[in-house]
């Protein structure tokens, strides 16, 4: 699974993506906000009336994030759990 996904004309990195939020911008258009724990927050803004396009892109991002997480052997927050230690032995 690639760590990059094309959303519109942009390439979005999925590897460090922590959260995805779909909301509105101040002019009534749609906005996707991407949260990264170790990088600046990024936004993708859509014009007025492009809500369905934004929803479609959020679904693409969520699916890509799920698929990318499946390729990782151990999630970073499980590194010190007993479950993760047992799976590494």
Describe the protein.
With 89 residues, this protein is α+β, with helices and mostly antiparallel strands. The protein has a single domain, classed as PH-domain like, CATH 2.30.29. Helix content is 31%, strand content 27%. It is built from two helices and five strands. A three-stranded antiparallel beta sheet has the order 3-4-5, with helices on one face. Strands 1-2 form a two-stranded antiparallel ribbon. The longest helix is centred in the last third of the chain and has 21 residues. The chain starts with a strand and ends with a helix. The relative contact order is 0.17. The mean pLDDT is 81.
What sequence of helices (H) and strands (E) makes up the elements?
Answer: EEEEEHH
What is the overall number of helices? 2
The parts where pLDDT drops under 50 for at least 5 residues are none
Helix residue percentage: 25-40%
Any idea what the shape is? globular
Strand arrangement in the largest pleated sheet? 3-4-5
Total beta strands = 5
Round the Cα radius of gyration to an integer and report it.
Answer: 16 Å
Largest sheet features: 3 strands, antiparallel
Mean pLDDT, all residues: 81
